Every structure is written in C-alpha cells, then in structure tokens.
TrEMBL record:
Keywords: Coiled coil. It comes from the Bacteria. It comes from Anoxybacillus flavithermus. This is Small, acid-soluble spore protein N. Residues 39-81 form a coiled coil.
C-alpha cells in the first residue's frame, strides 16, 4: 500500500480498510468449509487496515486522530474475538 501524504486520502484509506475488515469479519462463518481461507483473508485485511491507520496517524488532524483511534479499537476487538476461537 503506498504511503499517503495527503491527510484526507490517508484517512479515507484507513476508513475503507477498516470497513473492509469489518465486512470480512461479519461474513466469517466457522462452520463453512472454507473457514480457514476466510480467516486468512480477514487477517490480511486487518493487517492492511492497521497499516493504513498507522500511516494516516502520521498526518492526521486532531479530529481524524480520534476517529482513527476508534478504527484501531474496532480492529483490535475483531482480533481479540477471532483469537478466542483459535
């Protein structure tokens, strides 16, 4: 993922990445035959979103910073939930 210098672009990338990770989590079904594959993809999405958040935090305004911290919190909750079932 390229580094974004523009505050708005960086924020939007982090927001989109977080939304995509949440969507993957919402559709994760342990009983599916391809659960392992889904879980792997979810982990990739979460890692990418964390990276996007970290990049955005480097250039974020104070208002964006608060929202980015919430995104990070939401992703951490997904990680903790998934780790409970592994």
């Amino acid at each position: 993922m390229p580094y974004h210098k523009n505050k708005q672009q960086a924020f939007e990338a982090a927001q989109q990445g977080t939304m995509e990770a949440k969507e993957w989590y919402d559709h994760l079904v342990k009983s599916d035959a391809d659960y392992g594959s889904q879980l792997h993809h979810l982990k990739q999405e979460v890692n990418e979103a964390f990276e996007q958040i970290n990049n955005a935090l480097e250039v974020a305004s104070e208002k964006q910073r608060k929202q980015l911290e919430q995104f990070r919190h939401d992703l951490q909750a997904i990680v903790e939930e998934v780790n409970m079932y592994e």
